[in-house]
Design brief:
The structure is a homodimer. By secondary structure, chain A is of the alpha+beta class. The first copy, chain A, has 23 helices and 28 strands. In chain A, 40% of the residues lie in helices and 25% in strands. The first copy, chain A, has a 9-stranded mixed beta sheet with strand order 3-10-11-21-16-15-14-12-13, with helices on both faces. A 5-stranded mixed beta sheet of chain A has the order 25-24-26-27-28, with helices on both faces.
């Protein structure tokens, strides 16, 4: 253990003991015969809250030290932490490698019961936070997509990774993986490496994502990289399309793909959705659904998979007005941002106030800024640690040429900083692409309050004169003249007026002809226009739900010693909002009357819509608490009498006594977020002889 | 209009006028100066409720008359009704043909905003009604499935439809569709048809689903059926696998399919789920997700599609004990059942009490019966008309050979009776199939309270003797002897004891050998067993969510004249549970102060989690009511003052006045199902000058 880590651990232990002492003091105050003055209790409670915040910060610093430290010890501690999380997740069936009894398929995972419940809670909250609160138009489109759609979007041509094959066995590898592995291995194991060479290899790893196919090919050749398992020579590298291909209908003539994103389903429906919204901008459409990516060799466990759930928003807005009426609601938020300038200067992410980031132009526009703020609120309410969440702006070379600005919500976990949400201003690219390919205009209209006078270029070729001069070629010359841009036409007008004739290149003829003044009339006419027709810009927040959930698992996981101190107990500190089960019910001992009470309580919980389980195994209360902590159940109800029961909170382990007919409403109150545990604590007596972990 | 239909219409109109009169009486009672006695009001309200039930029944009888009547007029009225529903659904974007701007793909549909909201409400209720209330283990598995899994399940071999091709153009047709279309056309258009021939064609249509490939081939040949568009000859018929095929990973060597059902994901996880459930039976696992079926030529609009959402339950149970502890909760339900005997006798479905159906053995077991009851409750609470819902038992030839019993929940719509939920007792088939293919035992254990003595067959071949007799073939003979069933072995034992030798056929040798007494010892040994190991039976309720939703649309749709009587207004009478939007907010006239109130109300609705829209278009209140009725919004809030507002119920058009700060809680109460509209009606004043459809 590094010295600094040891000191952090000591600091944390001290804070925790102060918190415990204060908690005891509060309890004593409450229990004092005759009762303490309310003001006294309130003050003590406030002090306890502040102490808890400090203890939380100390715990986070320790966590950060464990994760951020860049030496080998920290790396292996990150590995050990991940192993502990993943072991718990797999043992408690949060995840299951899919088709496990058939030895599985790389990159495919099932959500088992608690994982599935967490996912469905996350999606329900996403619907509440985005679709409902923002009045978005939610749609649900099929995964099977005909080729024409994905040709228009560019996926058929460009959704590829570069691959090489073992020339003898045919095994496939991702070219960049091989290069990265080679560099890492050299750096770790080759003790003869010169400082220059080491720097070069480190540089390669850093710029890996930006290498062109040509550069990647060069590097593989230069380093003499061979197939890792067989040392056989490798094929040349070639693009592999990452979409799962299939065929629609029985003829075999209609190729289709499993969609690589949900966004296209929204774009192709723009016209109908715009109409549905009363032909008004801005509006947002949203979609939750499966997306597919036939990875060459999936790595990073649950973070890079072949099938995943996306939740995407396409917010359509007038490109001339990207203000947002509700921006004020998020303008005061302050969090970690990592603008382009800081990245290029080698600095680190910094705390910024969102309103300032927008007003200073760091974030391109208010609407983009509004979504960054809403995403921040979404993630932190789920339980993502705000100190391990940052918004990183794309560098110019990361962005598509058409994008106006792009920020990724990155969450730090044991794999490093992981992109979990992308928030991009994609300008008019997608709608234009589908307009062109389908021939259906995907545009918006702005009616002017009164008609506006605009100048419009009018080019009128004289067919008679052109016919006489060019005979059979006349048509091509006419078309070329009509196709001139405003600038070209005005130049021609000036030249014809001053010189009477002008050389003019006609592409379709492949030659230059001479145009005389009488052959064409060019003028700027005044015209009244009643509306502006334009292609809306789209701002796209796109959420990788599986990645968010995995990071949430890491951020929520901690261990604590059992009272017997013979083992570490695992806890997921999920907020009630996402906890897979809100409440467990335990009869203290195995007797019919307690079982009956447990059933009555279970029924009232079900009626209140609270997910719960009954654990009537005869094992000790301590073991049952441990079992329920390990899947992150926030509240446990112990049935120890036939009139009232004990409710225990997971993280503080505090217990209160509540009468049987109030249990469901109390649990609902604290799981719905109407009240905090702190709020209800003072309304009910604490348990005089609390059930402990040893029982 | 048929005479009986006319009389039903009159009866309905009469009932409705009595309801209206009684409603007025109730209103008068309430408004009486000094107030009526509460008892008097209560009695009047009860009378009104009873009348409404009668009016509802009359309306349903009319509906049934419209749908059931088998003559041409009724058929065309069904068509017209369907057209009206589908027009409304498409115009209001409940559904959109997918990829419409690219001229669509047959059998693929999007859910637009209101459809998507209905779907998400139906799924949320499914989770509440089944997963939560029954403590099921929900899982979420990928759609991409490796071939080995679907080989084990039988889908690779058997999930096929019979297809024929136009020999010249290559166009594909479903063989049974061609035969059906041929018969229908003949029956409709060929006036020279003899009664015998007509009977024959009708019979063919009836038994279409039961025809073997051979019979189908014969019929196509006998009737000289050709390609419908070109009249070209048809190819021989051959099976076409309905799964969308793809390839997993880059090698092209791992075939995979898009899952045709979600069930397999549960079966392959049985071992883990059983462990998760504390190694106890019974338990149920559930899954909601997309499934795929590459139909040859999709028909019936939204009922037969290529991608759809399934919700499936696999309830694992001891085959020796299929009782269900909660069966009493559903035993008194009475609804339309259509047992095998009634079908075979040519009778119609009949009202049965579920408890009797199980006790008389009509339904195979309590667990199957319990799920039938729960499905009935689920569908009727969604808003499916219970008079157009029946449970039809599979005929012996419809069931897989391994199935113990199977009932379909069929819902009547304009396409006829449609299978929407299948509830099958599949015995141990699926788990056994995956056990065999994977080599992993998918079994359950029942520990005996104390060890039991059982007799077990023991076969001990004498390798020495067999080696001497058969030399190189010894191994095959040993294996064949060890593989004998108990019956074969006991016969051999008897023969050897009486005759000293016996002829014995060894398959692997392809010949019969002579076995002498000394070559094998056969005995029944007594052994103590501590547990029973068995493969659980599975009872599978499987819900086609899209079909249920489509039938719900038809059952909820009605038209009513506008007050001006110049047009019919469309209404979807969704219960609040499934309504896409629970509440609309209209400022009565366009003024800033009403707009502000509307925004305050909208905010409180959002905070209460109630989906809503604001309609601030300047159109008349009547038009806005019509617009909101047409997407089935149950409540409309009209802002007509800055202190209190009007809430209007969709179907009764009744209005009450509620203060602004109570709006959200009142709407929540009636949409959550805590209260009915009738309940809140009496707590608030009705609107003195109600907003009418003409405003």
């Amino acid at each position: 253990m590094a010295a600094s880590e040891e000191s952090l651990r000591q600091a944390l232990a001290e804070k925790q003991s102060i918190v415990d002492a204060q908690a005891d003091a509060v309890r004593a105050l409450k229990a004092r015969p005759g009762g303490a003055a309310q003001a006294e209790i309130d003050a003590a409670v406030e002090a306890l809250k502040a102490l808890k915040v400090e203890a939380g910060a100390a715990a986070r610093r320790l966590q950060a030290a464990l994760s951020n430290n860049s030496d080998g010890a920290a790396a292996s501690s990150r590995e050990a932490f991940r192993q502990a999380v993943v072991n718990t997740l797999e043992r408690r069936l949060f995840y299951i490698p899919s088709f496990k009894i058939y030895r599985g398929v790389a990159g495919l995972y099932d959500y088992g019961p608690p994982g599935c419940a967490v996912k469905s809670n996350v999606l329900a909250f996403w619907r509440q936070h985005f679709v409902l609160e923002e009045n978005m138009l939610e749609v649900d489109c099929p995964c099977v997509t005909p080729e024409v759609v994905l040709k228009a979007s560019g996926h058929v041509e460009k959704f590829t990774d570069l691959m090489v094959k073992d020339e003898k066995t045919g095994t496939c590898y991702r070219a960049d993986h091989l290069l990265k592995d080679f560099c890492k291995e050299k750096l770790e194991k080759d003790l003869t490496l010169s400082p220059d060479k080491a720097a070069e290899l480190k540089h390669v790893i850093m710029v890996l994502d930006d290498l062109s196919a040509e550069e990647l090919r060069e590097k593989l050749k230069e380093y003499g990289i061979t197939a890792p398992d067989t040392k056989n020579p490798l094929s040349d590298l070639y693009p592999f399309n990452l979409m799962f291909q299939t065929s629609i209908g029985p003829s075999g003539l209609s190729p289709g793909y499993m969609r690589p994103e949900t966004a296209q389903g929204i774009f192709v429906n723009f016209k109908d959705l715009y109409y549905y919204n009363g032909n008004k901008l801005p509006f947002a459409a949203a979609q939750i659904g499966q997306a597919f990516r036939n990875e060459i060799s999936p790595r990073q466990g649950l973070l890079r998979v072949r099938e995943f759930t996306l939740a995407e928003i396409e917010h359509f807005v007038d490109p001339d007005d990207k203000s947002h009426p509700k921006f004020v609601d998020v303008a005061n938020l302050e969090f970690l941002m990592f603008p382009r300038a800081e990245q290029l200067a080698g600095k680190s992410a910094k705390q910024m106030i969102l309103g300032e980031a927008v007003s200073k132009g760091v974030v391109n526009n208010e609407t983009l800024g509004y979504f960054i703020g809403r995403v921040f609120l979404f993630l932190t309410r789920l339980g993502i640690d705000k100190d391990r969440l940052r918004f990183r702006q794309h560098l110019p070379n990361e962005m598509a040429h058409y994008a106006a600005d792009c920020w990724d919500a990155e969450i730090e976990c044991s794999y490093g900083w992981i992109e979990c949400v992308g928030i991009a201003d994609r300008s008019a690219y997608d709608l234009r692409a589908h307009s062109e390919k389908s021939g259906v205009a995907l545009v918006a209209h702005e009616k002017f309050p009164e008609p506006r006078e605009v100048e419009k270029l009018v080019i009128v070729p004289s067919k008679k004169e052109l016919g006489l001069a060019f005979k059979g070629s006349q048509k091509m010359v006419v078309e070329a003249l009509e196709a001139m841009s405003e600038k070209e036409a005005l130049e021609m007008k000036a030249t014809l007026e001053s010189k009477g004739e002008m050389d003019f290149h006609v592409c379709t003829l492949g030659k230059t002809v001479s145009i005389m003044k009488k052959m064409v009339s060019i003028s700027m006419d005044k015209k009244k226009e009643h509306q502006r027709v334009f292609t809306p810009s789209v701002i796209e927040p796109s959420f990788g739900i599986g990645r968010i959930i995995y990071c949430l698992f890491e951020h929520s996981f901690y261990t604590r010693p059992s009272k017997a101190e013979d083992e570490q107990l695992n806890v997921f500190s999920f907020p009630p909002l996402v906890a897979p089960i809100k409440c467990t019910v335990f009869p203290l001992i195995k007797t019919q009357k307690f079982d009956d009470v447990a059933k009555i309580i279970a029924k009232s919980l079900a009626a209140a819509g609270i997910s719960h389980i009954i654990d009537i195994t005869g094992t000790s209360i301590g073991k049952r608490y441990a079992r329920t902590d390990e899947i992150g159940v926030p509240f446990a109800v112990t049935v120890d009498s036939t009139t009232s029961v004990t409710i225990r909170e997971r993280d503080s382990k505090q217990q209160i006594r509540v009468s049987i007919d109030e249990v469901a409403s109390v649990v609902k109150e604290v799981t719905d977020g109407q009240s905090t545990w702190g709020d209800v604590m003072w309304r009910y007596p604490t348990h005089s002889t609390a059930h402990t972990e040893e029982e």
